[in-house]
Structure formats: C-alpha cells, structure tokens
Amino acid sequence: MGFDPGANFSGIKGNDGSGVREDHALGWGQIKMEWAPEPAITHTGSNEMNLAIAMFWPDKDFGFVMMTNVATKAADEAMQKLAAELYNRFSASTVGGN
Fold it and tell me: What averages of pLDDT result for each successive group of 10 residues across the chain (98 residues)?
C-alpha cells in the first residue's frame, strides 16, 4: 500500500477513512514522496493550533523535524515545500557519514 505523494501531511489516513493503514504503527508510517527516491519513516501531528512532522531516511542516516504554531492548509503546504528543500539540499551530504 503506497502513499499518494499529492496528499498533504495532515491527511495521512487509511483508504477507508478509518485512520488505520497497513504501513503505519503507533503513529509512525512509511511514505513515498515524489521528491525523494526512497520512502521516509514519518510521524505527523496537529492539535489544530500547531503542526509537526518528523521525517527520517534510515539508509541515508538523515532526517529532520519541522514544527509550526500555525495549523492551516497554507502552513501544511509550506512545510511540504520546506521538506523537499531540506531533503534536496542536505540529504546527499549525509551519505556515508560525511
């Protein structure tokens, strides 16, 4: 079961709307983003006032955590763009422990 790269971070739910997915456990999941060649291990959360996401690529020994005190669609979209920028700018420099 793959992740739709067009979906937003705050909308990770099962196909049946239950919030249960085969590729998720204890809030952590594996998703494939269109801007990364390999899937990320992620955890997202929001209390409708704040938004947070953790993304890790164990094979690259790379990851990051982003948080904002604004939980709007615009903030979610900005975090998606920032995640792609962080990955593209910094992930290659971590391969092999450099």
Answer: 42 47 70 92 92 93 95 93 95 61
